[in-house]
Recover the amino acids of this structure.
């Protein structure tokens, strides 16, 4: 089979105006970025906002292998399949980060014949949204240090500056740095650090803002640090929200692209799910709900991360009501969760599959706690044996959960017809009674322990002394009555990436808490998860190049 980029480059795309016309978007409601990309103007939403909402379907997954399990590929392929059977469907997904593009996991445009396009543009700079977010993040850093340099009228304690710089690359050397070296004219030396841009609070704010005015209010509410006396200092104290909003004035507009089968796709925002809240923008979701009969969206990594945050953060803030969940599972990941080494997961092994399938069961149980119907999508690979596929189908049937095989990577929309029909039947015959898992007005510890026990399966939650002190500070500043956004490993239900399957009764350690006051949640760091990833021993960047004709090659 050709590589992803070879398939994409051989596909003749339609103009973005033709794609927009499929969902009744007028040419004057587009801001064109070449022939195949556009931003949607706010005037469009004003025209469509009173229309009926589409059915909202979330795509999530079991705990993955390091290569991922095809959640985005499934989302794209399902969208194409739905449109093939005349179910008017739009897809809303996140923008890729350059970090994984040049790292190990690859891009976020799907794979095989289930991709969004133009994949090179989308995987790299696209319409510049992440660059704008990075610039806004670092402008705030510059304004903070400039304020300290020029007299520090707010008495901001340099030792208690919470705001970090950002770059959209995996660079472990930037996790902890010292800035301001070089003498008096260079500023005051202090410890600092970088997050990857997709973990920046600016990214979360953009993705949770309801509109431009809400964006500005959230930017005002960013907590940047504390005074020497412990008083909170916000971005509004520096009047920083105004220029930040200017930098984000175009980035807040959703992007329109297409699948390889010319279906409309909204691609906007890109927070990671293991270290951020893992969902595309609320604005793009709202557009999609008004432009189709079905809106498919995804949440990053496993359901213990992305789906949980989609339900408890995004749906709560946006007052969304999902109608169904697609849970993507692969035979290779289930065997990996059963203890089979990565080097052997493409070899049929029913015994390891039977051992690892408890991971699928746990995710099904977790999703049902939100009172939403679940459909299992078996993302099929050529090395999957018929016996392994039959076993998963039978297992799901015993759990009274519908399952369908998806072959969209190899076959495009045609390979997702069974999944699409199963989804439509499930929506038709099942009612959703969606409820978040916890109430925000409870204590931080109760919210953390609710997730740890009910979603992860933990028996004990430990807190470092630093975390205890941070909880006490948030409570005293009355910043604790917010949703929580847990940052932890994506490879396990626990905070230990090596604890696979469906562990029970283990302990998790809350290492640190960070307030994203503008975004409207508290970040809870479990275990050793980093908000600035590093590159692997052999990064994907080594294979990416331009050929003699100026075309990109090696991009997956």
């Amino acid at each position: 089979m050709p590589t992803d980029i070879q398939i994409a480059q051989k596909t003749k795309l339609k103009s973005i105006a033709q794609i927009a016309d499929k969902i009744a978007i007028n040419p004057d409601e587009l801001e064109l970025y070449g022939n195949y990309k556009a931003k949607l103007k706010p005037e469009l939403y004003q025209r469509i906002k009173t229309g009926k909402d589409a059915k909202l379907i979330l795509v999530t997954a079991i705990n993955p292998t390091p290569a991922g399990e095809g959640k985005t590929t499934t989302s794209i392929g399902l969208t194409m399949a739905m449109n093939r059977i005349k179910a008017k469907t739009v897809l809303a997904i996140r923008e890729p980060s350059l970090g994984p593009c040049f790292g190990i996991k690859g891009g976020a445009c799907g794979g095989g014949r289930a991709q969004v396009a133009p994949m090179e543009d989308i995987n790299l700079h696209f319409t510049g949204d992440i660059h704008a977010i990075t610039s806004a993040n670092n402008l705030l850093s510059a304004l903070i240090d400039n304020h300290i340099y020029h007299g520090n009228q707010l008495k901001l304690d340099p030792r208690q500056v919470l705001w970090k710089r950002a770059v959209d690359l995996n660079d472990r050397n930037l996790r902890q740095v010292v800035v301001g070296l070089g003498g008096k004219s260079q500023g005051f030396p202090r410890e600092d650090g970088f997050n990857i841009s997709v973990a920046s609070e600016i990214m979360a704010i953009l993705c949770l803002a309801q509109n431009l005015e809400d964006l500005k209010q959230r930017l005002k509410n960013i907590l940047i640090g504390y005074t020497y006396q412990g008083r909170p200092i916000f971005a509004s104290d520096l009047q920083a929200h105004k220029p930040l909003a200017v930098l984000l004035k175009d980035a807040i507009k959703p992007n329109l692209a297409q699948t390889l089968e010319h279906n409309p796709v909204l691609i906007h925002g890109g927070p990671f799910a293991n270290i951020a809240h893992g969902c595309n923008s609320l604005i793009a979701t709202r557009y999609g709900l008004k432009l189709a009969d079905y809106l498919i969206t995804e949440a990053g990594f496993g359901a213990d991360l992305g789906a949980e945050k989609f339900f408890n953060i995004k749906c709560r803030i946006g007052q969304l009501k999902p109608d169904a969940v697609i849970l993507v599972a692969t035979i290779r990941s289930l065997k990996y969760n059963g203890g089979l080494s990565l080097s052997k997961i493409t070899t049929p092994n029913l015994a390891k599959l039977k051992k690892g399938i408890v991971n699928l069961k746990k995710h099904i149980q977790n999703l049902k706690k939100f009172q939403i119907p679940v459909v299992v999508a078996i993302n099929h690979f050529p090395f999957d044996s018929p016996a392994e596929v039959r076993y998963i189908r039978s297992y799901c049937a015993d759990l009274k959960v519908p399952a369908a095989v998806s072959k969209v990577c190899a076959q495009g929309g045609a390979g997702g017809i069974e999944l699409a029909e199963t989804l439509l039947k499930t929506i038709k015959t099942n009612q959703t009674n969606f409820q978040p898992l916890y109430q925000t007005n409870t204590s931080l510890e109760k919210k953390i322990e609710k997730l740890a026990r009910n979603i992860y399966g933990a028996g004990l939650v430990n807190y470092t002394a630093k975390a205890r002190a941070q909880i006490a500070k948030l409570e005293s500043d009355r910043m604790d009555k917010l949703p929580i956004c847990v940052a932890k490993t994506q490879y396990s239900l626990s905070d230990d990436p090596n604890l696979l399957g469906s562990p029970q009764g283990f302990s998790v350690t809350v290492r640190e808490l960070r307030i994203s006051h503008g975004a409207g949640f508290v970040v809870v760091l479990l275990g050793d998860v980093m908000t600035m990833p590093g590159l692997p021993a052999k990064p994907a960047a080594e294979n990416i190049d331009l050929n003699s004709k100026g075309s990109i090659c090696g991009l997956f």
Summary: Residues 444-526 form a domain with the Formyltetrahydrofolate synthetase; domain 3 fold (CATH 3.10.410.10). The mean pLDDT is 96. The chain is about 35% helix and 20% strand.
